[in-house]
Amino acid sequence: MSGILIIAEQRRGELRPISLELIGAAQQLRAGGGDAADVSVAVLARDPAHFVPALKLAGVDEIITIAVATEEFDPDTFEAAVGALIEERRPEVVLVAHGVDAFGFSAALAARAGYGFATDVFKIARDDGALVATRGGYGQKLCVEVDFPGRETVVLAIRGGTFKPPDAGALTDPRIREFAAPATRSRSSGKGFVELSAADDVDMAAAEFILTVGRGVGEEAKIEQFRELADVVGATLGCSRPIADAGWLPKSRQVGQSGKTASACKLYIAMGVSGAIQHLAGMKHVNTIVAVNSDAEASIFGVAKYGIVGDIFEIAEELRRHF
Amino acid sequence: MKILVAVKQVAALDEDFEIRADGRDVEPDCLIRDLNEWDDFSLEEAVKIKEAAGGGIEVVVVSVGPDEADESLRRCLAKGADRAVRIWEDAVEGSDPIAIARILAAAARREAPNFLFAGVQSSDQSFAATGIATAGLLGWPHAAVVAKLDFTPGARTAALRRELEGGLLQEVEIELPAVLTIQAGINTPRYASLRSIKQAAAKPIEVLGLADLRLTAADVGESGSLSRVRRMYVPEKGRAVLLEGTPAEQAGQLAAIIREFKGEAA
């Protein structure tokens, strides 16, 4: 049992950033173990060769192309193909994304085959040869170390925004291999994609300064105070998932992983946002995050540059006086 | 027709919590229990389908947990579930989400529903694994992170939307019976009325052991799990620089950060 197998994630013809982060995680694991294990990256698509150039990266020894019948993610197809590949290769570690597509097949695959399994992993290490993965627990307030006694293959779903992708500069020449996917009858089928439509004219992706309200706002009537504050300070008003779920602000205002990617954001003020994993992963790229929260233990203080422990209404009122 | 809804009673840390002596979990007295937020949405989705059909659909909630989980099950009964099943034995202690999925799969075989709904993830441990692992063990079609569901009772397929990253949704058609993990925000969960809470208090909760599901102690707990918790610890404090002082002073420092960003003189 040796080797690290990465299942790359692609969508609509493009590799997702997590695919490269998985390569970074594999590099770190290899360095930590003193093991000369091969790193193989498998990519599943109708035309997997399309993704090969983008995967020729430092730390990749082999690229495995798996041609499948569906262009986009399909649970039955992925489960069968990845399962067959693991059975043939018997890698020690399989790295997948902790993301929506991998949610759709990795747990089913691990449960059926009896592979070691952990999700939302942000740290991988070895202790006396044994693989140890660290994830969050109790709403990200604790770190939880898990191991996998007796498991020859371990599948780890890696949290996005955690591991550094390899440098794109270095030219490498990994082996390219084709793997024949087993014939599968899919019991579900993708019918296409729909973009989240903007209910109002806001473009969160273009906003450089975002002020977000989270669950700490407490009630719908109090959203208005923050809308005014955002206007006054010149920020675009955003919100966390629970606020959009409750319908207090339109879904197009939601930031974080499943909301619109706030890719241009440079200053982010999060008021009453505790910091669910998906929210933090979606905002981690922002240069300056300021978190205002009454709970000094809120996990958002772990990624924020500046923090204010205090009452969001009081801070909002005081802040307004300055503009 | 029947919809089985898997729910979890989650645990949040109390303000002053202590790690257990063996370091592998938190002292149970320091935990505040509640129904998992996502499960509220999946129950609502099931009850909505039942109500729209006007009859002939049974909604059954199932939970793996000790007797304190009855509280969450009663809340589900008050919100429209017809029956509640709770599965527990001391051997289940120490189960990872896959061992829990083994129990849920056995419960699904016994109930033979057309749909099994589970929350996308739990708010305490955020595995995002239990529902889809259950589907894998059952060998049923499945879809993760469902944000919209169109289903006509009696139909052999359902149309749904999966919520992907970055505001993108995938439209999917799926065969039944199927396991769906339901995303928060798919509907607006109702509040239970006082009357329905009173009625739910009188309803029985069926309690099953492993033998009732043809499982043994080896199928659950650590031996039935694919991972084992070694230790839990409090992470080092975040790197946020705290802006101190009175609220006015804190806001003043924040205003300076905003002005600096906007290129204005402080």
Describe this structure in words.
The complex is a heterodimer of chains A (323) and B (266). Chain A is an alpha/beta fold and 323 residues long. Chain A has helices at 17-33, 52-55, 75-89, 100-103, 106-113, 223-233, 241-245, 277-283, 312-320, and strands at 4-7, 10-11, 14-15, 39-45, 62-67, 93-97, 116-127, 130-137, 142-147, 154-158, 175-180, 188-195, 209-213, 236-239, 267-271, 288-293, 306-309. Chain A contains nine helices and 17 strands. In chain A, the strands form three sheets. Chain A has a nine-stranded mixed beta sheet, sandwiched between helices. In chain A, strands 14-13-15-16-17 form a five-stranded parallel beta sheet. A two-stranded antiparallel ribbon of chain A has the order 2-3. In chain A, helix 3 (75-89) packs across helix 5 (106-113). Chain A is globular. Chain A starts with a strand and ends with a helix. The model of chain A has no long low-confidence stretch (mean pLDDT 92). Chain B has 266 residues and is of the alpha/beta class. Chain B has one domain (2-224): 3-Layer(aba) Sandwich (Rossmann fold). Chain B has helices spanning 37-53, 70-78, 97-111, 130-138, 194-202, 247-261; strands spanning 2-6, 9-13, 31-35, 58-64, 83-87, 115-119, 142-150, 157-163, 168-175, 178-182, 206-208, 228-233, 241-242. In chain B, the strands form two sheets. Chain B has a nine-stranded mixed beta sheet with strand order 9-8-7-10-6-1-4-5-11, with helices on both faces. In chain B, strand 7 and strand 8 form a beta hairpin. In chain B, helix 2 (70-78) packs across helix 5 and helix 3 (97-111) packs across helix 4. Chain B starts with a strand and ends in a 5-residue tail after the last helix. The chains are: A alpha/beta (323), B alpha/beta (266). At the A-B interface, helix 3, helix 4, helix 5, strand 7 and strand 8 of A face strand 2, helix 3, helix 4, strand 7 and strand 8 of B.
